[in-house]
Design brief:
Number of helices: 7
Shape: elongated
Helix content: 40-55%
Structural class: mainly alpha
Radius of gyration: 21 Å
Length: 162
């Protein structure tokens, strides 16, 4: 059932199709998420189960033959712990320009993940200067504490507790 991996073979004419680029991305993300995609390894079946897709649809997607149905992108992103918007962009469903400036995500920064730590956030923006990092991290930590305090005050006011 599994087709040979042709991901690294350059197609005739030297240009990959959108489905091939998407398949290459999904293969990488699936392997990073712990799915063993080798033939007979069970990773493809597990990915099919976790996404609600058929095993043949997963094989066609990974091999760059077809793109998933639009209603499957969310489940794929969740199973691979990837950002839905980035998958939609790579698949050509939504153009990069559709995102507001400054909101184009990294493939691994999806909302299905835990929030980034202040240090990881500084890393994601490429902040390497120690003074700038320390200032940024301190401000993020302060903002988190202030928000939690405000949330506590708000929930206390709603519940009527003193």
């Amino acid at each position: 059932m599994d087709k040979p991996n042709t991901e690294d073979q350059e197609p005739p004419g030297g240009t990959r199709t959108t489905a091939q680029e998407f398949g290459k991305l999904i293969r990488r993300l699936a392997e990073e998420a712990g799915y063993d995609l080798a033939p007979k390894a069970g990773g493809r079946l597990a990915l099919a189960r976790d996404t609600g897709m058929s095993d043949s649809a997963v094989n066609r997607m990974i091999n760059g033959v077809t793109l998933p149905h639009p209603n499957q992108f969310h489940k794929i992103a969740k199973a691979l712990n990837a950002d839905l918007r980035a998958l939609l962009e790579v698949a050509g469903v939504v153009p990069r320009e559709a995102w507001s400036e400054g909101t184009v995500p990294d493939v691994r920064s999806g909302s299905s993940q835990s929030p980034l730590s202040p240090e990881a956030y500084a890393d994601s923006w490429g902040i390497t200067d120690p003074v700038i990092r320390q200032t940024m991290v301190a401000n993020i930590e302060l903002a988190i504490r202030l928000q939690r305090a405000q949330d506590t005050e708000h929930s206390t006011a709603i519940s009527g507790a003193p």
